[in-house]
Amino acid sequence: MIPRIYIPGDSGALALGAEKVAKAIEKELADRGIEAKIVRNGSRGAYFLEPMVEVATADKGRVAYGPVKPSDVKGLFDSGFLTGGHHKRWLGAPDKIPFLAKQTRLTFARCGVINPLSLDHYKAHGGLKGLQNAVALTPADIVKQVTESGLRGRGGAGFPTGIKWKTVLDTTADRKYIVCNADEGDSGTFADRMIMEGDPFVLIEGMTIAGIATGATKGFIYIRSEYPHAVATMQKAVEAARKAGVLGVNVLGSPNAFDMEVRVGAGAYVCGEETSLLDSLEGKRGQVRAKPPLPAHKGLFGKPTVINNVISLASVPVIMDKGAAFYKDFGMGRSRGTIPIQIAGNVKYPGLYEAAFGMTLGEIVDEIGGGTATGRPVKAVQVGGPLGAYFPRTLFDTPFDYEAFAAKDGLIGHAGIVVFDDSADMLKQARFAMEFCSIESCGKCTPCRIGSTRGVEVLDRLAQNIEPEKQIALVTDLCNTMKFGSLCALGGFTPYPVMSALNHFPDDFRPTPVAEAAE
Ligand SMILES: Cc1cc2nc3c(=O)[nH]c(=O)nc-3n(C[C@H](O)[C@H](O)[C@H](O)COP(=O)(O)O)c2cc1C
Ligand code: SF4
């Protein structure tokens, strides 16, 4: 058997030096005259172990090593790593590594396991079963399954996916569209990128099912311009799917037609907002549209459109394969299934952790994430991207659940969490949130366009200790206006990071008076 070596080629692993490791392994193989097959897989998401190289052995299955540096490569060969030999970077079977072993991988089951661009590999690991089941059903039955699974949008708002699909199914039109939102602008998030680079066919399968379920024959994947590797992988995967008859006029030989194209985003955070994204796809400047009409009634080019996040769509194949009840069995309350939590920032074990809803924030940060990378105490965790609230330790008992977070004035968003240690200055973080909003505002409505700029000024005065009580009252009032008066969640949710920082860390908002500090 020719040895098979898996070296991740996804952006995260590449940023950590995977390409240099691949080159070093290729050279070592050539120098030693060993024949081996190198597979560039996606990452399994344990980024603290990347570049994580795996070898498929005859007797021990896959054996992992990491984090591998180019300087380790000679030693790895000397230690017999092609047959799973021991070395200081030896990790053993990848699915026994605690960070990976404890996960419930439904959506990311194949990510890091297969060759992302091999349709055969995809099928050998359960791929296309969901689509095969879907082509045998009526659109209404597919929508029913998705509704019953309890799947909610993973892009941020948590809207029930089945209800959105039903609206499009029930709207009569000569053309309908499926748009995949892969703009992934939230800080600390990388789930969309990871799956597009590690298992692109699962997204294609999910979008195709969405098309058949709603009567849409055309899909677009709108990927942020900062993701060139994801763009390239998706483009190749779409071509391969077309060639194999997964896409085209007869999806898997059925009478259903569906095809899709990859489009590259415009580099604006607001283009992740669904209506801005549609404007951008239509070739216009990305600006938020007033609702109604909903995109499900009048979306892309005025036609009924399903717009869903990458993870929402990529979760559909497992639902259609294993059934709504199987998926719904995971989770808590109205948050059903699994969620890929992205742990980032100042944290010891950064990575993607897919688990059923319901783990507490404390478990995620302290146990899975291992606390801070600096070893200092955790001060705050921002959950849900730049519009998410900062949670202090006292809220670490909050379960990862849409309603539980909302009850504490927070949000799950796209499930990115960014950890901060006790050196973080929460007044600066609040200012950052306002500044971010002022830079990224599409300018359509006043509370956001003007309010965010005034907010930065007020927080600057507070930092200079100019009439602090007055500034705190002013910023609170301003946040109220933005929250209730903004057209979309960019202006409407910026108050969450600002007010959570102010409410949970009031000491940071009362800078020491200059005279006192000098004493
Ligand atoms: C300012 C702003 C930025 C957003 N960025 C994204 C994004 O990058 N990706 C995403 O999927 N949803 C994003 N959303 C949410 C989308 O508007 C929309 O709710 C989502 O694409 C719907 O898909 P889902 O139901 O599958 O979550 C953003 C919303 C706002 C207000
Ligand atoms: S809240 Fe901000 S981003 Fe949203 S529509 Fe208004 S100006 Fe545009």
From TrEMBL:
Q: Does the keyword Iron-sulfur apply?
A: yes
In terms of SMART domains, this protein maps to: NADH_4Fe-4S
Q: Which residues form a coiled coil?
A: none
Matching entries from Pfam families are given as: Complex1_51K, NADH_4Fe-4S, SLBB
Which co-factors does it depend on? FMN
Which InterPro entries does the protein's record reference? NADH-UbQ_OxRdtase_51kDa_CS, Nuo51_FMN-bd, Nuo51_FMN-bd_sf, Nuop51_4Fe4S-bd, Nuop51_4Fe4S-bd_sf, Soluble_ligand-bd, Thioredoxin-like_sf
Q: SUPFAM superfamilies of this UniProt entry?
A: Nqo1 FMN-binding domain-like, Nqo1 middle domain-like, Nqo1C-terminal domain-like, Thioredoxin-like
Which residue intervals define the domain NADH-ubiquinone oxidoreductase 51kDa subunit iron-sulphur binding in the entry? 427-472
Q: Give the record's keywords alphabetically.
A: 4Fe-4S, Iron, Iron-sulfur, Metal-binding
Give the superkingdom in one word. Bacteria
Annotated family: Belongs to the complex I 51 kDa subunit family.
Q: What is this protein called?
A: Formate dehydrogenase iron-sulfur subunit
Which species is the source of this protein? Mesorhizobium robiniae
Its taxonomic placement starts with: Bacteria, Pseudomonadati, Pseudomonadota, Alphaproteobacteria, Hyphomicrobiales
